[in-house]
Amino acid sequence: MQQLIDAEQSDLFDVLAYVAYALPPIARTVRADHARVYINSNFNAKQQAFLDFVLQHYVTEGVEELEQRKLNPLLRLKYHDSITDAVADLGGKPEEITKVFAGFQKYLYQETS
């Protein structure tokens, strides 16, 4: 379906919005750039760096990179297999990391003006 509407760089969300409401698909790069504006004003510098890393994976790999099961592999990749370093960097508690990871995602799908 993504190929049919020339939306290979968009999420399924955008494909469905196109089919249901004739809304133009938004590329993941555009969604990521829009989310960065909010991330930069709502998260500290270390969290921003991690979320930028996540966004890079989202843009290149797709929306699957935002699944909860991907959090641990992304942390290991970013922090060279050291979850201890990740926890220290991103809030001191694993729950804080989960909150940051899940919390920024709403900014990807907010309406752009």
What features would you describe in this structure?
The chain is mostly helical and 113 residues long. It has one domain. The chain has 6 helices and no strands. α2 packs antiparallel against α3. The longest helix has 17 residues, at 45-61. The chain is elongated. The two termini are 26 Å apart. The mean pLDDT is 90.
Brief summary of the model shown:
With 113 residues, the protein is mostly helical.
Protein topology:
Blueprint: H1 12-21, H2 28-42, H3 45-61, H4 71-78, H5 83-89, H6 94-103
The 3D shape can be described as elongated
Instruction: Give the low-pLDDT segments.
Output: none
How far is the N terminus from the C terminus?
A: 26 Å
**How many discrete structural domains?**
1
Beta-strand portion reads under 5%
Q: Please count the helical segments.
A: 6
Percentage of helical residues?
55-70%
Oligomer: single chain
Element string (H = helix, E = strand): HHHHHH
List keywords for this structure.
single chain; 113 residues; mainly alpha; 6 helices
